Request: fold
Amino acid sequence: MSSTAAAVAVLIPAPRPSADGDAVSVLPSLYVPEASQWLSTSSGRIASDGYSWMQAVHWVAGSGLYKPRRHRSHGPRSFGPTTVRVAQELAQLFPCRPGIEYLVRRTGLSERSVEYHLGMLREAGLLAWIVKGSRVSGGPLASEFARMIPVEFDAALGIRTVQRDEGAPAYTRAVSGIAEAGRELMAQLAKKASRKVRKPRSKPSAKAPARDARKGAEQGVVTAVSDEVRCTPMQVGTSTLSTAGTTSLPPESKLASGLSDSPTPKKSKAKAGGRRKLNVVGRRFQLARELIQELDWLRGCSVPRIAWVARNVADAGWTVTDVRGWLHFRGEAAKVRRGSGLLAVLLAGAETVLDTPEKRADAVEQWRGAQEAARRHRIQQVRARTERYDGDWHAPTSRAVRSEVEAAFAQVREAANGGRHQDQDDVADDQALEAELSQQELAQLRADAWGQLMAGETDLVMTAVNAMGRPAAERIYGAELVQRAHQIASGSRSSLMTYGRR
Reply:
């Protein structure tokens, strides 16, 4: 195992007795088949946030329970730091609808590698499909995932869950406690989830010039010469030098107080967290990239142009969430012709109106409240539509159709009572029904049936066929209309035919 993988690995503790009677178990393997990689069929539970989900990701990465090469002969060989980097990008998305191009741009991986690691996260039980994207016209373009925590994670750490709503699905269960034996491991996972796994730097070539080696030494890069001898700029004494170049010791005037015996170089004060601190221009470009990713009507805009448009709010310390809150407060246009121009108009004077963090936080809360209200409104609309289509049946408004339906119900009642005239008087009843309908009503009835047939609906004709039989329906609607309605009704049950509007 490499040093990078060792930093990610978390070992599963051995089972030991707990104070509350719970014990942590060691699991043999971890694999979710393709049929169980959907949210409706998943055995795991939805992660409450990205932070808790990253704890489960680091646990899977270090446990060794999931090995990709057990189930396929190609792709990555292990669940390693690269998969954790892809998971870090997914943990920041809400909702989790990552595009392949977006992950390629963020991680620097190839398109095939991103697809491999997404498949590994699904097979490990960490992701579940909500909607599977496709390139078919009219279908969803991007896949939407649910961040899941597998049941093996709860069993290994002794996490107890409870289903608060009995009518809710099993994947909505919440955490109610944890065993004593799993608290220490959970603390280690919390530390790993708070740190970010970054792309490893490429190793310097042995043919690099000496000035590159000296530059790396001045920046605190430690070059391994052998298992026992290391060359560092703070080392004192005689040591074997690297073949990549000579390393000069710092002058005595730059030493703090005497010679330091520690082989670890001091961190540069110009760097924070191992990364170079962004200046004013860097913050502008960072905010511009985040705005282009968050706002759909800014897709395709130039990053430098958006950085120039948002320069005032970026200099004032605004984040992309603050900008979203201000845009909700300011109002957005329904039709956008030029995204950068619209953004310049909407952000005019924003830093003077919301000049304090409290005001920006209040605007963000209002924006999130509006999003939640819109989500509830959509749910109510779906429920109302479902109740309207799945509720009680209402009688038709047309008098001719209503008389036909009443006759059909009468035949059903007679059949339930023993079929008094089911076999003898079918022809007489049909003739009587035809006699009751005038030529004008019959023509209107056929016109209504033809109009519904042109819209792809065959309920009127097929109800008459099922209630009175096909010969009687042909005498009312005509043989051609009944034949076409029968063909459309038969084709609607086939998966090879689709009806709708273009």
About this structure: The beta strands are 45-46, 127-131, 144-149, 159-162, 174-178, 223-224, 230-231, 271-272, 275-276. The chain has three domains: 3-194, 278-392, 399-492.
